[in-house]
Amino acid sequence: MPEGLEAEIYRRSALKGVGRTIAAVEIDEFQAEAPDIAGVLPGLVVTGARRRGKLVLLDLGQGKDVVVLGLHFGMTGRLIVDGHSAIDELEYASGRDQPTWNRLVITFDDGGVMRVNDPRRLARFTLDPDEDRLGPDLLAVSRDELAAALGRRRRAIKAVLLDQTVIAGLGNLLVDEVLWRSGIAPARRSDEVSDDEIGVLHREMTTTLEVLLERGGSHRGVISPEVRSSQPACPRCGGGLTRDQVGGRTTIWCPRHQI
């Protein structure tokens, strides 16, 4: 967390910066590209706010002088624009807004401010990030793209779906939710999933992402953080939910109906 849905909410908030000129930049000293970012951005106009997977991309400048600033929020980063946080609470993060947690502060010439506030220093900022290394975006991936990606790999389907070069933006909460809704066991090899099951998976992925985006984020699903911590009966079939490690990630699933 934040996953692709949270990044989309941040992107929409970042649109408030479009058309504004950057006057000054302060950046956490632990950021490897801090000198470049702090030196390059002042004087540039924000011309766009895009997203690819979990990465929010700010287009800056015009013509040949275009620079792209990539914002990756790690586990606990929040975007705050003109004092307004697009998401008040994140799983695994404090909802407090401590000035000492500011990792990037962009001040506009009109006095407004865009900040990334992150208590754990996991957020990362880069100039002109390599967007080509990412797979199709979670909100745009087609059924054919999904089928091709799963069929080419022989790993657990959960591990494949978490691979950002396969589909950009899916994270642990979303993958558990989508697989639970699709009735597919997370450890099943991706190349063994049938064509019919891929159709179900794509449909459930599309529907789930739309619903959870409207609700406010990845943590609003049936397999929510509360359910993950308490491990009650499966809301669908009544069987016991199980906690396992799949692809190195904590995984909540139902052995009764996920096959």
TrEMBL record:
Gene Ontology annotations of biological process type: base-excision repair
InterPro entries on file: FPG_cat, FPG_N, H2TH_FPG, Ribosomal_uS13-like_H2TH
Catalytic activity as recorded in UniProt: Hydrolysis of DNA containing ring-opened 7-methylguanine residues, releasing 2,6-diamino-4-hydroxy-5-(N-methyl)formamidopyrimidine
The UniProt record lists the keyword Iron: no
Cited SMART domains: Fapy_DNA_glyco, H2TH
TM region(s), chain numbering: none
One MF annotation (Gene Ontology) recorded for this entry: DNA-(apurinic or apyrimidinic site) endonuclease activity
Record-linked Gene3D superfamilies: 1.10.8.50, MutM-like, N-terminal
Entry keyword set: DNA damage, DNA repair, DNA-binding, Glycosidase, Hydrolase, Lyase, Multifunctional enzyme
Ranges where the Formamidopyrimidine-DNA glycosylase catalytic domain occurs: 2-123
Family membership: Belongs to the FPG family.
Record protein name field: Formamidopyrimidine-DNA glycosylase
Organism expressing this protein natively: Ilumatobacter coccineus
